[in-house]
Amino acid sequence: MSSPIYQTYARYGIAPEKGEGAWLETTDGRRFLDFGAGIAVNALGHAHPHLVEALTNQAGKLWHTSNLYQVPGQVSLAQRLVDNTFADLAFFTNSGAEALECAIKTARRYHYVSGHPERFRLITFEGAFHGRTLATIAAGGKEQYLEGFGPKTEGFDQVPLGDLEAVKAAITPETAGILIEPVQGEGGVRTVEPAFLRQLRKLCDERGLLLIYDEVQCGVGRTGHLFAHDVVNAEPDIMAIAKGIGGGFPLGACLATTEAASGMTKGTHGTTYGGNPLAMAVGNAVLDVVLQEDFLPHVRAMGLKLRQTLAGIIDSHSDVLEELRGEGLMLGLKCKVPNTELAAACLEEGLLVVGAGENVVRLLPPLIITETEIAEAASRLDKACARLEAEHLEEQTS
């Protein structure tokens, strides 16, 4: 019998049923060490007690009212995000793509109410991934995501990552701002040089443009800092976040300064589900944990441990691996074999990883990962690499 589900995913042949911390158990009883974390979503692992309690308590009170009414949890979560970022205001969404849509609309409306409705275009970067809506696939610019969906949504100009002169050349009287991921995730775990982000900030200030960060994947502690740009000294005007802020519950947000959001007045934007009481309860619970004094130092320490461990594995398996990329617990291994082969070999060894562009395999463990679990993951990755080496040697000699 064929599946009743859209055939848009190439799914692995396992069905997770339950999880705890960094571990998943499938319907047939197999256990996997999860270094994908739902593609950087499960920041606190599976079934984190504080998140479970927050969701369960809220579920017994109220699920949904819409944004026709006050949602107290929105005020508290927004205030905490404002207190810990550049932003003055927040708009809550259900996903990263929706947060990016809000960011794009916020930038366009800013120029519209400022008397420059012609300024609607955003400069974006090759290798970027901003979501799967018609606007965000246009922002990313990858042909494989654009093909077959009609004319590309107008308003996005891609330039090479790190090329300041190309950015300058792309600026026209229609340019509204610049949209960039401080660390590209889907694009191959490519970290943007801090100096380049500072140059973009300066350029935006000089040309009256808005700087927009996409920290959907690299934010909420993933790099060892609350947000990846925190150590760069180049704050944005607008930022989209999601994934980790919900810890597994669908939640995103667009954060902005008061000036940047000046065009977002009553009736200009909305959402039915965004910012619902369930999401707000979980988002606040995530911040309860992530904002603890010892949490981000733990992420940095585990990121360093994982980096050191992976460097040794690269040395031991230079026929399979060639480069380590990323920050904190957002790391990527550039492969010499197809990354799909390495991901499949890791699966056979009970380790879940995630593919990315430029033939990279991502390691995105939950931020609560321990040294013992890192050592276990390294052992399984080592075996996966050895498996591939043996297979390729057998092919060469047969």
Give descriptors for this structure.
398 residues, alpha/beta, Aspartate Aminotransferase, domain 1, 2 domains, 4-stranded mixed beta sheet, 18% strand
Structure in words:
This protein has 398 residues and is α/β, with parallel strands linked by helices. The protein folds into 2 domains: 16-34 and 294-397, Aspartate Aminotransferase, domain 1 (Alpha-Beta Complex); 49-290, Aspartate Aminotransferase, domain 2. The chain is 38% helix and 18% strand. It contains 12 helices and 17 strands. The protein has helices at residues 37-40, 49-59, 72-83, 96-113, 134-140, 143-146, 164-170, 194-207, 277-290, 295-316, 339-348, 371-397; strands at 16-20, 23-26, 31-34, 89-93, 121-125, 156-159, 175-180, 183-184, 190-191, 210-214, 238-241, 252-256, 321-327, 330-335, 351-352, 354-356, 360-363. The strands form 4 sheets. A 7-stranded mixed sheet has the order 4-12-11-10-7-5-6, with helices on both faces. A 4-stranded mixed sheet has the order 1-2-3-15. A 4-stranded antiparallel sheet has the order 13-14-17-16, with helices on one face. Helix 3 (72-83) packs parallel to helix 9 (277-290), helix 10 (295-316) packs parallel to helix 12 (371-397) and helix 11 crosses helix 12. The longest helix has 27 residues, at 371-397. It is globular and about 70 Å long.
